[in-house]
Amino acid sequence: MRTRLCFLVPPVHKIFYVQRASFIMKRKAVNASPRKQPSKVPKSSICSYLSLQQKEEHSLSDIVKPAKENVNQNANMTQQTSQEDSETSSSTSEHSSSLVENPNPVCEEKLVECTFTNVTWQGNSRAPFRFLADAFETMEATTSRLALIKILTQVFRKIVNTTPDDLLPCVYLCTNTLGPAHEGLEFKAGEATVLNALSSATGNSVKVLKERLTKLGDIGDLAAECRTTQQTMFKPPSLTIHGVYQEFRTMANLAGKLSTKEREKHLQKLLVSASSKEAKYIARIVLGKLRIHIAYKTVIVALATVFAPCPKSDAKTTDGMDVILKEAAATLNAVYSQLPVWDRIIPVLIQNKSTEGLEEQCRLTPGVPVGPMLAKPVKEASDVLERFQECSFVCEYKYDGMRAQIHYLTDGNVKIFSRNAEDDTPKYPDIVESIKFALSKNNTVTSFIIDSEVVAYDPETNAMKSFQELQGRARKEVKIEDIKVPVCIFAFDILFLNGESLLKWSLKDRREKLFDTFSTIQGKFQFTTSKVFTDWEGVDEMMDEAIKAGCEGLMIKALTGEYSSYEPCNRSQNWLKMKKDYMNSIGDSLDLVPIGAYYGRGKRSGVFGAFLLACYNSETEEFQTVCKLGTGFSDEFLSSITKFYKDGHILAEPKPYYGVSDTPAIRPDVWFEPCQVWETRCADLTMSPSHTAAKGMLSEEDKGVALRFPRFIRIREDKPVDDATTADQIVELYCNQKSKM
Amino acid sequence: MVSKEEQNSSSSFQFEARLTQASLIKKILEAIKDLVTDANFDCSAEGLSLQAMDSSHVSLVSMVLHAQGFEMFQCQRAVSLGINLASLTKILKCAGNDDSITLRADEKGDKAEFVFESQSQDRLSEFELKLMDIDSEHLGIPDTKYSAVVEMPSSEYRRICSDLGLMGDTVRISVSKESVKFQVDGDIGKGSVCLHPSSVVDKPTEVVKISLEEPVDMIFSIRYLNNFAKAAPLSDTVTLSLSKDFPLQVEFKFGEQMGYLRYYLAPKID
């Protein structure tokens, strides 16, 4: 027999399923007896015990019955599939008016049908994961936002009505997260782990799975397709939403040298119990690629629809309902942006059965980072003036550092959170010290949250250093005495002080509060350099000064009025940023040669997803790699370019004159003939050990130059490959950039 | 030392059993610990039994030690001892092969006690193992009339599995009246081992016997068969029972009246 993948053929499976059922054996009645002091907590809260006395002989009917049930189940499943199919096709057309139906289950008490599935369950059990997988599948098939919201609303409503405790895990699974961002809980499982688990769960060899994955491009599709060549002894209990979520959390919490193996086992257990559809989404969730077209915003709208307050009888018109829903979504959004922790919000929602009263119970809390307020880029003075007509605005230096949200808790702890809500406190023990100094003259402060930029700083010359220097700092368990790159905090906003949220205050008032509360320490804790303007005069000069001082540009913010409040995680028009490179002062494009490519994943499966680009070193006559390029392409371009290279421009081996480092991540899946030149832009140039461009021509002998954030512009049909940007030019660009710092 | 009778009368334990040779338990554990991580040891008046499935639900282990196989056995009420097999292995490492082993569990059922006593009775070691709650379902295994039953030396079984395991992932087992054939097809090539029923019966432990209702031809994962081979030290012979579309049963008997260790393995789809 040859080893080959036997992808599941449904009828065969069904037949076996029935036969298998006849082999197995009745599950025995279970006698629950809780036991004290379990040394290990079991996965399910109900512990079951068996006593041998309960063993009974198997009568024929016992054995036949489960088989019959299974036949029914199979019939159900078929029915379900066909129903689903019709649903998927019709959902796009009928959703338009659907948002306003039945806003609150609690006051309407109407049992809502789920249009995407016929999976149901009772309040005394847990919500099946099958239910969510059905929802995900329907959502994957549509991109209409209204349709997505409709499905998600049905999901949440059904869960709230049946088993409200399952809502929290459900929301986390839908957002492909394991908990609030600042907990930093990650899946930590790579493709290899999933493949290994899939292999042991299905009996297919990893090698076969890998080959198949290259063709399919998506590990979820692989998991769904390769259900099994290996029969199981009996069907494991079906997965629940809560169970899957808990299993994921257990996996994420595993640490230590054997944790990868352990994680594999947990995942294998999930996959064994999963149907093909469930397996698909489990594999995807683990790799963080759920791809059901929703972000937390959609979740908020759907939750708001479920928990919208009951309309007063006179407002029961479509318009009235619309307003209520919008308000509920706005409330929930505001609450979530101030306290982005579903564990705190959802219990309150369930208890209140409404979004009313949520704002009072879930507030900005020191210790829980909020998304930082973001700025819109602008290019010209006119853009700014248009925005800030008739109101004064403040310009601040835009430092080239890392955003840091610094929290001071009532127990005296200082927490530092990155832009992505990661807890950076262990990385910056020096900041914790600086904060305590900055507060030393003010003993009325019990708690605060400030927004700031952390910049590498040379205390001897009082000069700011580049972002790259800051990146070079150690990340874990940093000790104050080992710090090699000193940093300075540049504070620019205050969100919370002594138990009071200042988010709604005007920037003017917040700045005053900030200046009053803290004292500056040169080189440790400073306020951003800023100036208040009423018109454009002087702004250009300030821009030049900022760039001279080593900053990226300016931040421009309204000082008073409705646009001056702090809006967490919102990229609004209220803050504007002006950077030197937006102003096109630098940014020569480079003409580079693609010498290899990587197979695309997900949306780009079937075509190349990224390319390896090289410059030309005229001295060594080598093509030296300078970046991996994956942005700036249209889908049409990718398919045509994939076709072009696959038609005889692919090499079995790299050319001897390709200078490629040994870094495995750089190795392309296929090598190209050097036959095109692509114009590419980038943010800046940096030294990299993985690329070989201009290697040996700069101070760091063993590193090459690499592009940061490269972007494809167009194909240079007019240029032959040896006319590409040369290593010398790259050296020049790199040195120019350095002198501008 | 307390005599056996005194122990019996004064026992406050729900369950107490003594086995003369710790090696039996040690071997059993070796044979199942790679397949199963946690398992419930069910103690009843009839004996000690264990049933567990591997995490993939592909194979099932069923072990029975009859009460009469113990030197002493008493069970006032059926209890289930949830044991992590890796922990049990650690404790059993402390027992010599010829030590006697006493297992006890009390009313509360949160721990199990192990007492190892050397043959010369001059060394006594006692251990307590914390028990855990294991969520498991008990499966009744119906007595099946298998189409083909093959008895062979367990050393031969072990050798075939490990040899063929080097070549591929799956093995095709075909049983006919004349022979049982194990075939493998791998990346590097293919191979097969064919055993014929022995004509001369001088050494009963080296006999190959086939009893056949109808010929069988099925595919199994070698990895699991190899795992089962770890039970070879428990018995000189092994019995493979096959029926089309039914799990394979691989049985190792612990001698007369003692009990057995059975593995079940679901077939692969061709």
TrEMBL record, chain A:
<protein>
    <recommendedName>
        <fullName>DNA ligase</fullName>
        <ecNumber>6.5.1.1</ecNumber>
    </recommendedName>
</protein>
<dbReference type="GO" id="GO:0003910">
    <property type="term" value="F:DNA ligase (ATP) activity"/>
</dbReference>
<dbReference type="GO" id="GO:0006281">
    <property type="term" value="P:DNA repair"/>
</dbReference>
<dbReference type="GO" id="GO:0071897">
    <property type="term" value="P:DNA biosynthetic process"/>
</dbReference>
<dbReference type="GO" id="GO:0005524">
    <property type="term" value="F:ATP binding"/>
</dbReference>
<dbReference type="GO" id="GO:0006273">
    <property type="term" value="P:lagging strand elongation"/>
</dbReference>
<comment type="similarity">
    <text>Belongs to the ATP-dependent DNA ligase family.</text>
</comment>
<dbReference type="InterPro" id="IPR012340">
    <property type="entry name" value="NA-bd_OB-fold"/>
</dbReference>
<dbReference type="GO" id="GO:0003677">
    <property type="term" value="F:DNA binding"/>
</dbReference>
<dbReference type="Pfam" id="PF01068">
    <property type="entry name" value="DNA_ligase_A_M"/>
</dbReference>
<keyword id="KW-0067">ATP-binding</keyword>
<keyword id="KW-0235">DNA replication</keyword>
<keyword id="KW-0436">Ligase</keyword>
<dbReference type="InterPro" id="IPR000977">
    <property type="entry name" value="DNA_ligase_ATP-dep"/>
</dbReference>
<dbReference type="Pfam" id="PF04675">
    <property type="entry name" value="DNA_ligase_A_N"/>
</dbReference>
<keyword id="KW-0131">Cell cycle</keyword>
<dbReference type="GO" id="GO:0051301">
    <property type="term" value="P:cell division"/>
</dbReference>
<dbReference type="InterPro" id="IPR012309">
    <property type="entry name" value="DNA_ligase_ATP-dep_C"/>
</dbReference>
<dbReference type="InterPro" id="IPR016059">
    <property type="entry name" value="DNA_ligase_ATP-dep_CS"/>
</dbReference>
<dbReference type="InterPro" id="IPR012310">
    <property type="entry name" value="DNA_ligase_ATP-dep_cent"/>
</dbReference>
<keyword id="KW-0233">DNA recombination</keyword>
<feature type="compositionally biased region" description="Low complexity">
    <location>
        <begin position="78"/>
        <end position="98"/>
    </location>
</feature>
Automatic annotation (TrEMBL), chain B:
<dbReference type="Pfam" id="PF00705">
    <property type="entry name" value="PCNA_N"/>
</dbReference>
<feature type="domain" description="Proliferating cell nuclear antigen PCNA N-terminal">
    <location>
        <begin position="15"/>
        <end position="137"/>
    </location>
</feature>
<dbReference type="GO" id="GO:0003677">
    <property type="term" value="F:DNA binding"/>
</dbReference>
<dbReference type="GO" id="GO:0030337">
    <property type="term" value="F:DNA polymerase processivity factor activity"/>
</dbReference>
<dbReference type="GO" id="GO:0043626">
    <property type="term" value="C:PCNA complex"/>
</dbReference>
<keyword id="KW-0235">DNA replication</keyword>
<comment type="function">
    <text>This protein is an auxiliary protein of DNA polymerase delta and is involved in the control of eukaryotic DNA replication by increasing the polymerase's processivity during elongation of the leading strand.</text>
</comment>
<dbReference type="InterPro" id="IPR022649">
    <property type="entry name" value="Pr_cel_nuc_antig_C"/>
</dbReference>
<dbReference type="GO" id="GO:0006298">
    <property type="term" value="P:mismatch repair"/>
</dbReference>
<dbReference type="GO" id="GO:0019985">
    <property type="term" value="P:translesion synthesis"/>
</dbReference>
<dbReference type="InterPro" id="IPR022659">
    <property type="entry name" value="Pr_cel_nuc_antig_CS"/>
</dbReference>
<dbReference type="GO" id="GO:0006275">
    <property type="term" value="P:regulation of DNA replication"/>
</dbReference>
<dbReference type="InterPro" id="IPR022648">
    <property type="entry name" value="Pr_cel_nuc_antig_N"/>
</dbReference>
<comment type="similarity">
    <text>Belongs to the PCNA family.</text>
</comment>
<feature type="domain" description="Proliferating cell nuclear antigen PCNA C-terminal">
    <location>
        <begin position="140"/>
        <end position="268"/>
    </location>
</feature>
<protein>
    <recommendedName>
        <fullName>DNA sliding clamp PCNA</fullName>
    </recommendedName>
</protein>
<dbReference type="InterPro" id="IPR046938">
    <property type="entry name" value="DNA_clamp_sf"/>
</dbReference>
<keyword id="KW-0539">Nucleus</keyword>
<dbReference type="Pfam" id="PF02747">
    <property type="entry name" value="PCNA_C"/>
</dbReference>
<dbReference type="GO" id="GO:0006272">
    <property type="term" value="P:leading strand elongation"/>
</dbReference>
<keyword id="KW-0238">DNA-binding</keyword>
<dbReference type="InterPro" id="IPR000730">
    <property type="entry name" value="Pr_cel_nuc_antig"/>
</dbReference>
